Amino acid sequence: MKRPTAVLAFSGGLDTSFCVPWLREQGFDMVTVTVDTGGFSTDDLDQISARSDELGAVAHHTLNGRQMLWDLVVTYIIKGNVLRGGVYPLCAGPERLIQAMQVVEIARLYAADAIAHGSTGAGNDQVRFDLAIRVLIPEARIIAPIREIGAQRATEVEFLRSHGVAVADRVERYSVNKGLLGTTIGGGETLDSWEHPPEEVFIDTVSPFDAPDRPMLLTLRFEEGLPVALDGATLPPLELMAALAEQGGEHGVGRGIHLGNTILGLKGRIAFEAPATLIAITAHKELEKLVLTKQQQFWKDHLADVYGNMLHEGLYFDPVMRDIEAMIDSSQGTVSGEVRVRLFKGLIHVEGCRSPYSLLDRRIGTYGEANEAWTGAEAAAFCKLYGLQSLLAYSAHHLVTISEE
Prior knowledge:
By secondary structure, the protein is an alpha/beta fold. The protein has three domains: 5-171, HUPs (Rossmann fold, 3-Layer(aba) Sandwich); 176-292 and 334-354, Alpha-Beta Complex (Argininosuccinate synthetase, chain A, domain 2); 367-405, no CATH class. 42% of the residues lie in helices and 20% in strands. Helix 2 (42-55) links the parallel strand 2 (29-36) and strand 3. Helix 4 (93-109) packs parallel to helix 5 (125-136), helix 8 (237-250) packs across helix 9 and helix 10 (294-312) runs antiparallel to helix 11. The longest helix has 19 residues, at 294-312. The protein is elongated and about 90 Å long.
């Protein structure tokens, strides 16, 4: 009798390594899938494939999800200036969406009986995986072994060793996730709202105190809301982001700590490094100030904040997300031009920007001085009418008579 097949989202770490032999003992043939969303080297991927084979999987697939992550997610994070809590550019969460989407494709290829992931019952990732899988392949059984049996890390280590699988003696104090958008660091001091992680946990950026004493100037060119060139050189988006990550990391920019609400209602805290994404968002936001109207900025920023929160919380497939994307895309038609940025000791400072669609027209007026768009009498009339409701309200509340002059 043919054994059922389970397809597992596989990182090669302790949790997903535990899942392979555990599910095999439940009667499944295991197929593992690793989706590279920007955090793996070639050597890493080779080691993960070898790990899958060692654990007894019948097949392993390595998929490249970086371009898909850029196309579906990163573009809207940049165009929307999305920063959860005003600081965090959603480094890890969107990766799970892409990983789940590609794992589902492999599950269809094998006509799998189940899709598995290594999420615990306490974090955000279980929600992201479950929601995406249920939307894309609702007939599939979802298995999350760590969540289902409440496995502790020590128990997982003991189980693997009892099955002849080598596990390092040292259990890492921090959980590190590296991807296209940046790197997140959880555990250790991040579990305490007062403490700060030590310098050694930051792997992508130098300490701002040790950064060069001379600033770096760079120029980003945007077309319709997305960066397309760095210092005059047109680059594919993934190469451009890699260059920004390297230059930003050398100058200690992009570090932060996010304290906020998890999907399950708990408070959570992580450290992160995202130099490329934060440089791109900082420059993009300044360019928008130059070319968008006040109302465009207000409504786009408002809806982009809603978009970012829903994306972070696994609600990517809600139809309203496509509606918001349409609005964001519509707003970006004139967000083209150049932005000059200075990187120095952990800071990102915009020195200037220019665009053929600039709404800052020096021919019309000089701030605080003369202008050619209206007369002094028209300005006086505007001032009188602009605050009329405030005047009427104050008069009504304080029983003051309004002068007719």
